[in-house]
Amino acid sequence: MESKSTTWDIVIVGAGIIGCSIAWFLRNTPYKVLLLERAEPGGLATNAAAGILGPLNETEGPGPLLDLMQESLALYPDFVRDVQATSGLSADYVPSGIVSVATTDSEMAQLEKRWLWQEQRGKDLAFLTGKSLHSTFPELAQTVRAAIHYPHESHVFAPRLLRGLLSALTRQGVSLRPGTSVRRIRPLAGNLLSAETSSGDSIQGRKFVLTPGAYLNEMELPHPVPPVIPANGQILSVRAPDFPMRTVVFYPPKGYFVPKLDGTVVIGATEELVGYQTRVTPGGLMEFLEPLRRVCPRLLDSPLQLTWSGLRPKTPDGLPILGSHPEHPNLLFATGHYRNGILLAPVTGKKISGLLTKQIDARSLMDFRPERFS
């Protein structure tokens, strides 16, 4: 039951995987926490995500983003275990590994280039070719010439993880208001902030955390506001309950497939800058279905289950935005995670909750500070 408090200690705007993860790491603090969500929790990003947990596949080189991803991946087993134990709901966390494959000369050159910098930055990585490759992964087509195997990367069923988080949070006293669209946030006297909603309500809090994903710049906020744009991603799933492979496969140019425990295989994904449209088009689906023919054509004969799309929050430099507003330290940002919101959820929750409770120094997040675009 929601508290009748008129002034909240912490208000989190956005109840997707990022907002819920921050609330999760605050659950054992004395703070009164309120989660606001414009529609239904996880609607446009979390519920559309494939749930891949693959740091080395999502970065082009070493740097702060890779470090943050690998730190988050290390948190995942305990994070999922604790959420499942509290909620009683499975997140279908599968530590099955990931492979990144090549089928042509140009793809081989790119894969070898990745191997040069990745070999020493992951545990137990292997570069597989020939008989070794096809005996390990017999489901892959013979046209697959080589692969990098990341045995400790994994995946999770993102909507189920979110449902578990929401169930656990409500059991532990965190309040949730779905269908609450925040139009404006403004400072008040006494170091308070106020959120004005589309229905005319005003919600006051001592600290606000903005986790609205792609909708950050749709709100009226104190300047400066870091730039976030929506990137549409088309995706689909097929039913393949007899498909024996459990490993996630990445294939050029930007395709992947993710076998889930329930016999679903998720296949994606496009990247389109088309504003706030969520659309699925034949041309978009062909971008990742056509190259799949060279990698695992068997999946193209599986019954089509669903198609969908979601909006990823993208920043100009590809890094998330984590930290306090430069003029209003009680207003924090946790957005811009782009393709990696599911992967980065536990580390974001841990670090932003650490900032809120003054357990960590803001300098530890300097590479992701909101004012870097000013």
Topology:
Layout: E1 7-13, H1 17-25, E2 33-36, E3 52-53, H2 64-87, E4 98-102, H3 105-118, E5 126-129, H4 130-136, E6 146-150, E7 154-155, H5 158-171, E8 175-177, E9 182-188, E10 192-197, E11 202-210, E12 229-239, E13 248-251, E14 255-259, E15 264-268, H6 282-292, E16 304-314, E17 321-324, E18 331-335, H7 341-356
Parallel strand pairs: 1-2, 1-11, 2-8, 4-13, 11-18
Antiparallel strand pairs: 3-7, 4-6, 5-6, 9-10, 10-11, 12-15, 12-16, 13-14, 14-15, 17-18
Radius of gyration over alpha carbons?
21 Å
Figure out the total of helices. 7
- Assigned CATH architecture of the largest domain: 3-Layer(bba) Sandwich
Structural class: alpha/beta
Which residues sit in consecutive blocks of at least 5 with pLDDT less than 50?
A: 1-5
- The fraction of residues assigned to DSSP E strands is 25-35%
- End-to-end Cα distance, whole Å, is 41 Å
Number of strands: 18
* Helix content estimate: 25-40%
- What's the average pLDDT? 94
Instruction: Please trace the helix and strand order, writing H or E for each element.
Output: EHEEHEHEHEEHEEEEEEEEHEEEH
- Give the overall form: elongated
* Count of separate structural domains: 2
CATH topology of the largest domain: FAD/NAD(P)-binding domain
CATH class of the largest domain: Alpha Beta
The CATH H-level homologous superfamily of the largest domain: FAD/NAD(P)-binding domain
Question: How would a crystallographer describe the biggest sheet?
Answer: 8 strands, mixed
